Amino acid sequence: MKYYIFWVIFFFSTVTIFSQENFKIGDDVPEFKLWLTDGSKLTKNDIQNKVVVFKFWFTSCLPCILDIDALNTLVDEYKDRDDVLFIAPALDRKDTILEFHNKTTFRFKTAYSAMDVSQIFNPIQVYPSYFIIDKTGKFSYIDSDTKQSKFIHLEKALEEALEE
């Protein structure tokens, strides 16, 4: 009987894990709520008619830190556009993020304690993960299955989302 219960639990937990469907290009963005370090919050309603670049990360993730200079350059390129948002939901608590920002310039608006939103967007929990949401609220770029983003693809996807 113990073995039967074990296998039933194992089967259902495996099915649950593998049935977590990752989002695909063209899927609607799910509802979410992020708390930003500037004291504001961001929800799905707040990003309507904007292109949003999300980078899910955490401060002790070396690959997450290595692309910050390139991401800052990208933010600088689009700084005069009010239809583009750069948001970095982090797994870390607010005090850890603020300490990080005191030592490192990162021009994305940063959300803290975003594990719940990260699990929705990025169920396989690969970091960093990048998503671009188009102005209609649909995913137009997803990189959440590699640990090495192809930055040129991110830039191209952002340009394409802005052209639509």
How does this structure look, described?
This protein is an alpha/beta fold and 164 residues long. Helices cover 38% and strands 19% of the residues. The protein has one domain: Glutaredoxin. The strands form two sheets. It has a five-stranded mixed β-sheet with strand order 5-4-3-6-7. The protein is globular, with a radius of gyration of 17 Å. About 10% of the residues have low confidence.
- What is the H-and-E element order? HEEEHHEHEHEEH
Q: How much strand content do the residues show?
A: 15-25%
Mean pLDDT: 85
The fold-level CATH name is Glutaredoxin
Overall 3D form: globular
Instruction: Decide which structural class fits the backbone.
Output: alpha/beta
Please outline the helices and strands:
Blueprint: H1 2-19, E1 33-35, E2 41-43, E3 51-56, H2 62-66, H3 68-77, E4 84-89, H4 94-103, E5 109-111, H5 115-121, E6 129-133, E7 139-143, H6 151-163
Parallel strand pairs: 3-4, 4-5
Antiparallel strand pairs: 1-2, 3-6, 6-7
